[in-house]
Amino acid sequence: MSNPVFSNSPVFGDPNDRRARARAQAGGAATATVDAATLDRMYEAPAATARQTGRLTYDDVIMKTAGVFAVLVVSAAVTWTLVPGLWIVGAVVGLVLGLVNAFKREPSPALILAYAVAQGMFLGGISLFFEQELPGIVVQAVLATFSVFAASLFLFRSGRVRVTPKFVRWLLVAMVGYLMFSLVNVGLMLFGGTGEFGPLRSGPLGIIVGLVAVGLAAASLIVDFDSIKRGVEQGVPAKFAWSAAFGLAVTLIWLYLELLRLIAIFRE
């Protein structure tokens, strides 16, 4: 059975089949001739766009991403202003929802927006803490995040950085290594009681690690852009714009936190 989206479309449907049905229903050669002319005009009409056929478009991704970040920013602002102490709740809930959304085969807009709310709570509280210690740091981190995002998009669109299987393997290995490093640092911080960033994330070493982390986040953004591009070119369903928005949100939140920590190390 053919796809009903195409078989029921006056643009993509088979004009020969429609002409045959028209002849059978009309019962006369004159009517068949008129129907054939009508069908020819329909067949020669402009092709349906990706949006009309329910396929993913860049506009879909932009709109869904803007919606996710609007929810995140509102949640962060409310938390910053009213209940900054709930940042730990947002961190835990955001982690759980992030894992759930990452492993779902079909995107759930409700869960993705809930993730944005939780992460907004986390970012609102943690950003206020940094801002109280180092006034102006949040604006610096936000501007730096936008700058890295723009640079990554430029490198991807210009073709200066290409996403190849080798590039993806390198990024995967580097991120696993960084994750293990971070876990060791957190363990030393919790059980050794040394520094708010841990002994491995302070001083010159902390700056080097922070720059590496920002580089990994920027590379992850480039891979995200490539995934979105392939999704649009392959004509995946439009609902996966939510998945693209979720993926970009995860990477940009990570990038913002790394820049926030890196700027704090520089300023201290």
Task: Provide a brief overview of the structure.
By secondary structure, the protein is an all-alpha fold. The chain has helices spanning 4-7, 15-26, 29-43, 58-81, 87-103, 109-133, 137-158, 165-192, 203-234, 241-267.
What does this structure look like?
Pfam families: BaxI_1 (PF12811). It comes from Cellulomonas fimi (strain ATCC 484 / DSM 20113 / JCM 1341 / CCUG 24087 / LMG 16345 / NBRC 15513 / NCIMB 8980 / NCTC 7547 / NRS-133). InterPro entries: BaxI_1-like. This protein folds into 2 domains: about 5-45, no CATH class; about 60-265, no CATH class. The chain has 10 helices and no strands. The chain is mostly helical. Helix 7 packs across helix 9 (about 205-235). Helix content is about 75%, strand content about 0%. The longest helix has about 30 residues, at about 205-235. Residues about 1-35 have low confidence and may be disordered. The radius of gyration is 25 Å and the shape is globular.
Question: Distance N terminus to C terminus?
Answer: 66 Å
Could you tell me the strand content as a percent range?
A: under 5%
Biggest sheet: strands, sense, closure? none
Mean pLDDT: 83
Helix share bin: over 70%
Structural category is: mainly alpha
Provide a count of the helices. 10
Unreliably modeled segments: 1-34
Total of domains: 2
Order of helices and strands: HHHHHHHHHH
Anisotropy-based shape: globular
The tally of beta strands, per DSSP, is 0
Rg over alpha carbons: 25 Å
